[in-house]
């Protein structure tokens, strides 16, 4: 395990942006597999591989770049790493970024699932508030620790590891008809 971690560290040092995006995409995919197998209890035969691939794509093309870019912007907006700075970053992250990100995520998955504009809007009206409230049960504490203890280039990976459960929930929520 230590060897894998050293290899990951080496790749991260050489290609930080690529590795963060690949990590995010992979872990969003893991979240979808967990959602289908443990939450929805589909079983291996009924597993929707296309859905998992869509979710991996969302992770590669949306989650990784957007969250990774956001962390860079947030570090420039609120520099430092004191407890007060971590609290400020969490408040900006959870008060401004998280609501927008969550709405964007639900819209993208709805679009990829072929929903009409009307169906997508109805789904967002139905699911957004519940997802945002659930977000606030989990992420403020995680983000304070993330902003205080974790260096910038590891934040996306740390968040995505913690987010395996969150990604499972989001995949279930976003793909629920």
From TrEMBL:
Keywords: Membrane, Transmembrane, Transmembrane helix. It is a multi-pass membrane protein. One of its GO terms (biological process) is regulation of mitochondrial DNA metabolic process. It comes from the Eukaryota. It is found in: Membrane. The chain crosses the membrane at residues 55-74, 94-112, 133-150. Belongs to the peroxisomal membrane protein PXMP2/4 family. This is Mitochondrial inner membrane protein Mpv17. It comes from Leptobrachium leishanense (Leishan spiny toad).
């Amino acid at each position: 395990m230590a060897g894998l971690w050293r290899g990951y560290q080496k790749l991260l040092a050489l290609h930080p942006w690529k590795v963060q995006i690949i990590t995010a995409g992979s872990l969003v995919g893991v979240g979808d597999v967990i959602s289908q197998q443990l939450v929805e209890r589909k079983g291996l035969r009924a597993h929707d591989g296309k859905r998992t691939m869509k979710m991996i794509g969302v992770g590669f093309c949306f989650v990784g770049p957007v969250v990774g870019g956001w962390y860079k912007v947030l570090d420039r907006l609120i520099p430092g790493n004191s407890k007060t700075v971590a609290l400020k970053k969490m408040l900006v992250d959870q008060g401004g970024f998280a609501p927008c990100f969550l709405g964007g995520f639900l819209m993208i998955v709805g679009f990829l699932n072929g929903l009409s504009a009307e169906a997508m809007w109805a789904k967002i009206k139905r699911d957004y508030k519940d997802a945002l409230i659930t977000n606030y049960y989990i992420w403020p504490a995680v983000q304070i620790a993330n902003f205080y203890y974790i260096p910038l280039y590891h934040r996306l990976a740390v968040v995505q590891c913690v987010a395996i459960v969150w990604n499972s929930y989001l995949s279930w929520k976003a793909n629920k008809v």
